[in-house]
Every structure is written in structure tokens, then in C-alpha cells.
Input
Amino acid sequence: MSFVKFRTIAIAAAVLLGAVLAAYFGATRVNWNFARAVGEPIDSLDGVAVYYNGGVGHSAGRNLAPDGYNLGIKYQCVEFVKRYYYQRFNHKMPDAFGHARDFFDGALADGELNKARALLQFRNGGSSGPRAGDILVFDRWMLNPYGHVAIVARAGETEIEIVQQNGGPFASPRETLALNTADGRWRIAAPRVLGWLRIPV
Output
């Protein structure tokens, strides 16, 4: 391959990569829903507000509780979940940092205490079904390396309703997911659900 041809291919690849990165940045950091403003309350659960974040990668700075406890980056999914547990249960996680995917410790057995979060951890497909108030944890995927978390608002026999923050510019803060039970096992039939966390009783 000649140097000129190699240089042409390299320039074309660089331009293509730049275009892909620019498109990804625009899709994840820009508010494309002009009917809503970042920081606008769009729902609430048990008196805890859900705020609109625009693009899923948008960051509006860190939110700290009055006592200095780290609630997370406004208005990401983690910030809502930690604020919900702090306001409703007065619960502080020993590890006050980390992405959504870090809430679930894959090395733990079903029903074991997750010491980093001071919560019981249950696996999707395990022997304990989700309950209202649980934190649902989703694994990372190609377009989201951080994972996702939400609160279970309602748990029925065949479905659950979750409340989430930062689902996307046009996503609803509430979503219904199918729940399957067989042989004493509970499985949420949704992609990438790792499991759920719960206040110890």
C-alpha cells in the first residue's frame, strides 16, 4: 500500500471516528426534548421528586445532603435512588460513590448483605421476589457503560412498576416490567436486570 493511499484511509477513519463521537455526545448530552427543562420535577414516589435530566449523559453537578452525604450527580439515576433511600429510610450507603452497575456485587450469594450498600441483595431469578421500595439494578450495555438503577414502586404477581430518573429525554419515569415465577424462583423478564437491593429488617 502506498503512503498516499494509507494517509487517505487514515484521514477518512479519523473523520468517521470524529463524526461518531460527535453524534454520541449530541445524543447523550443534549436535551432534545424542548418541552422539558433540566431539573424540572416530572414525577414523585412517596414524596421524593423525580427530576428531568435531558440527555442521559448530562451532568448538573454533585448533590449533597445537608449533612454532607453524597447523593450523586444531578439528575442521574443513582442520585434519585440514593436520595429516595436517604429521605424515606434515612439510609446512608457506606460506599457513597460508584456507578449504577456498582450497586450489585456479583460475588454475593442470593439474599446476602451487600456491605458496601448496607442492603440485602437478591439475584434476578432467585428465591425472593422484588418488593415495593427495592432498588432494581441493571447491568451495563453497549451504549451505557454505567448501568442503571430504579426504585420498585409496585410489585404484583405478574408485573412490577418501577420509577426511574434519567431514562432518556422522551422516556417515561414509570415503566412496567413482566415478573415470572416458577419453582419458587422470581425473574424480572427485562434485559440486563441483575437483581434488587432491600433494607434489612
The domain at 31-198 is CATH 3.90.1720.10 (endopeptidase fold (from Nostoc punctiforme)). The radius of gyration is 20 Å. The chain has one domain: 31-198. Residues 140 and 147 are 4 Å apart (CA to CA).
